[in-house]
Write a structure and sequence with these properties.
Layout lengths: L1 H22 L4 E10 L6 E16 L2 E10 L3 E11 L2 E6 L9 E5 L7 E2 L7 E10 L5 E9 L6 E5 L3 E2 L17 E11 L2 E5 L12 H7 L2 E4 L6 E6 L5 E7 L5 E5 L4 E3 L6 E9 L3 E8 L1
Antiparallel strand pairs: 1-2, 1-12, 2-3, 3-4, 4-5, 5-6, 7-8, 8-9, 9-10, 10-11, 12-13, 14-15, 15-18, 16-17, 16-19, 19-20
Length: about 290
């Protein structure tokens, strides 16, 4: 009976998470690629996650937005909740039964030379503050950091989007080869099914995501971007291509083509799409815009 009740409780928690995610599918989504390094005999590998904005909750008299994680490793679960106040973002971690005290997750007022997480063992220092334009044409502040005491490790924030490590993984740094650790990398950020930002270190917004796909994607180019009549595919190293299609941002195939060099997209409505290129061993998706 005890085991049965435990199963029921776990199922109920999972169901609530799935319902919350479903109800907010047109809200904010972060696509994450992760790597992990564990001591022998445990394995080293990679994983993929979606972080989704959930429902509004009241914590200590303040309103927060919950964040759910959809992970190929751990399934669906509630991670925590965040709130915005001016140019700061605060976060409360969910510990399984209640929310922890909030911490400052982002401070978008930081300027060059400022420190973040001074009290931690590995604080970050701002090295540069610039402005980028997202895929909707909105100008956003970009804050670049280096990790103090750790060479050649960097991170950047995009105002209103989050960290290059993923929204909830500020201050992550790669573990050395002699210690355990995880490293998160944001692939892209969605709002209402529109891709708002793609991490330039990956130039991809596909899930699942693999190193093999990343290598293959560097061998294929799509142009022009934006396009209006025809989108061309440049197969730089003559990868074996079995099929080419156009899919929208929620994964629906809207056009299939027998040609591997160019696709007529003149009848498709304006918006953001992916060219999906399927080979013998890889699947590559390239983001492009029809205007």
């Amino acid at each position: 009976m005890a085991k049965h009740l435990q199963f029921v409780r776990r199922f109920a928690v999972l169901a609530v998470a799935i319902i919350a995610i479903s109800l907010n599918i047109n809200a904010q989504e972060w696509y994450i690629y992760g790597e992990y390094t564990w001591s022998a005999p445990h394995p080293t590998g990679s994983f993929h996650e979606r972080h989704l904005q959930g429902e509004t909750v009241n914590i200590g008299g303040l309103e927060y937005q919950t964040i759910y994680v959809n992970s190929e490793v751990n399934g669906n679960y509630l991670d925590g909740a965040y709130r915005n106040e001016d140019n700061q973002v605060y976060y409360c971690k969910w510990n399984g039964s209640s929310y922890d005290d909030e911490v400052l997750l982002y401070d978008y007022d930081l300027e060059e030379g400022d420190y973040f997480n001074d009290e931690n063992e590995h604080p970050m220092q701002v090295t540069e503050v610039t402005t980028i334009t997202d895929l909707n044409g909105v100008s956003r502040k970009k804050i670049s950091f280096t990790y103090i005491g750790i060479e050649d490790k960097t991170e950047f924030w995009i105002e209103g989007v989050g960290s290059s490590r993923g929204f909830m993984h500020v201050g992550q740094w790669e573990a050395d080869h002699n210690s355990d650790g995880e490293m998160y990398h944001m692939l892209c950020y969605h709002v209402d099914n529109d891709v708002i930002f793609v991490n330039p270190e990956y130039n991809d917004c596909d899930m699942p995501y693999s190193v093999e796909d990343n290598i293959a994607s560097n061998e294929v180019s799509v142009y022009p971007n934006p396009a209006s009549e025809v989108v061309n595919i440049l197969n730089n190293n003559k990868l074996s291509i079995n099929s080419v299609g156009i899919i929208d941002l929620i994964g629906r195939t809207v056009l299939l083509s027998e040609k591997a060099e160019n696709i007529n997209i003149s009848e498709l409505p304006e918006g953001q799409y992916f060219v999906r290129i399927t080979g013998e061993t890889t699947i590559v998706k390239k983001l492009f815009i029809i205007k």
